[in-house]
Specification:
mainly alpha, 4 helices, Helix-turn-helix transcriptional regulator, WH-like_DNA-bd_sf, Tscrpt_reg_PadR_N
Length: about 110
């Protein structure tokens, strides 16, 4: 079977988390594990995606120094991030249609493997 890209939609899920509340990277990772069935969080991938989203202007951050321990980057979604989230929604809707078609055709084949 061809290698699947495991984190293709990771930026979409990060933006979706940030729409609900500002957050730091490890909390985003925790939320994804909690909310997505069978999701195994790659913390490094989350931080790479956050960095890419920051370069694109989709997120910004501020330093949280209110907690004990080292300061944390707390990310917030920007207007550009909201625009990207709308595009991700369109992408997901399109993929759902294609996947539903696949499942419909597959079921008709009556393959029992």
């Amino acid at each position: 079977m061809a290698q699947m890209k495991n984190h293709r939609h990771l930026p979409a899920f990060i933006l979706l988390d940030l729409v609900q509340h500002e957050n730091h990277g490890s909390a985003i990772c925790h939320n994804l594990v909690r909310d997505l069935p069978d999701f195994q969080c790659d913390t490094a991938a989350v931080y790479r995606a956050l960095s890419r989203l920051e370069r694109e202007g989709a997120v910004v951050y501020h330093w949280d120094t209110t907690q004990s321990g080292p300061a944390r980057k707390v990310y917030l979604i920007t207007d550009k991030g909201y625009e990207q989230l709308v595009e991700w929604k369109k992408d997901v809707e399109s993929r759902i249609k294609k996947l539903n078609h696949f499942l419909t055709v597959y079921k008709k084949l009556r393959i029992n493997k």
